[in-house]
# Entry
Amino acid sequence: MRDLGNRGFAMMYVLLLITVSGFLTVAILPRCVSWYHAALVQYETDCLVSNLRLLQQMSRTAVVYPANEGEADDILTVAKPELEFRDKFHQYRITRMGRSEAGLPQRQNLVIHSYPPAITVASSNAKGTIDFGRNGETKDIMTIAVCYENEQQRGKDVIIDIAGRIRVEQHHEK
# Structure
């Protein structure tokens, strides 16, 4: 008889442990998912800022380096890079015009960054492209919103001013 009592106690202990762990999971899981979404938005924002700074530096040196090696005398091959958003493919890329092996003008991909489909990257620029001038400046102020789907209040805004300064702020609905 004593064995039956101990078995019942052990079974109640296991059921209590499963119940408590279930309640903790239900309480903690939404917070963990929220942290994951915030970390993903922060990572994609950091990647975008890094690629914008790379684009800015490449624009500053576009006059020095020709589009193809060995053609330093040909001014037409010098091409300024630009960043292009491709929402359909969930990516953005840094490209410039160069020449193919046959000598025809062709767009060259310098950097391609793909982001998860749950992330939205939206530019205030109607063209969907960003380019910098020789001194790193832009023609107008641009804002790029990086958000997780249906969580715009936790998104980030990457703001590029006319002088070419790049800063990140909390996303504001407009």
In short: The chain has one helix and eight strands. The longest helix spans residues 2-60. The mean pLDDT is 83. The longest strand covers residues 105-114.
